[in-house]
Amino acid sequence: MLRYLTAAALLASAIALPAIAQEATVKAPSSKTIEKNVARLTLTEQQAKTWIKKPVYSSDGNELGDVVAILRDADNTVTEMHADIGGFLGIGETRVRLTLAQFKMQDDRVVLSLTAAEAKVLPTVQK
Questions:
Q1: Beta partners for 65?
Q2: What secondary structure does DSSP assign to 25-78, as a single string?
Q3: Three-state SS for 113?
Q4: Contact 122, 98 (CB under 8 A)
Q5: What is the arrangement of strands in the sheet containing 109-112, beginning at the earlier edge strand?
Q6: Nearest to 120 by CA among 56, 72, 68
Q7: What DSSP line would sit under 70-109, residue for residue?
Q8: Cβ proximity of 101 and 31 under 8 Å
Q9: What pLDDT, on the 0 to 100 scale, is given for residue 3?
Q10: Which of 34, 49, 50, 124 could form a disulfide with 101 if both were Cys (CB 3.0 to 4.6 A apart)?
Q11: Rounded CA gap, 73 and 75, in Å?
């Protein structure tokens, strides 16, 4: 009987160990290292408004959330974008800050240069 319990414990450990080992901390690339060689993007106030509520996708094709704000300086240059990601039906969303180097606007969506896991660790913004 003890032999079977020992074998069962070893089998359970062998199954659980790879799952534990796969957990890894994902760190988003630093905005200082990304911002080199970034093109300038300018949008008028009206153009910026048309991007609000557009979907945001990760580089690995997952829909993450929606655009909630596009911040511009005095000469209409986009400085950053805010997006609500995660959650379900508007509950549990996190508002994140995206630098110009971390996203591009394509057709009717915003595509990040980050994976879904990297996007989850972006700097947050108060709603």
A1: 56, 85
A2: ---PPPHHHH-TTPPP-B--HHHHHHTTT-EEE-TTS-EEEEEEEEEE-TTSBE
A3: coil
A4: yes
A5: 94-99, 78-85, 63-72, 55-57, 109-112, 103-106
A6: 56
A7: EEE-TTSBEEEEEEEES-BTTBS-EEEEEEGGGEEEETTE
A8: yes
A9: 55
A10: 34
A11: 6
Tokens of 16: 């659980």
pLDDT in tens, 48-74: 999 999 999 999 999 999 999 999 999
Q: Which two tokens stand for residue 112?
A: 């990040």
**Low-confidence spans in the chain with pLDDT less than 50:** 2, 5, 17, 19-37
Residues 6+ apart with CB under 8 A from 82: 67, 68, 69, 70, 71, 95, 96, 97, 98, 125
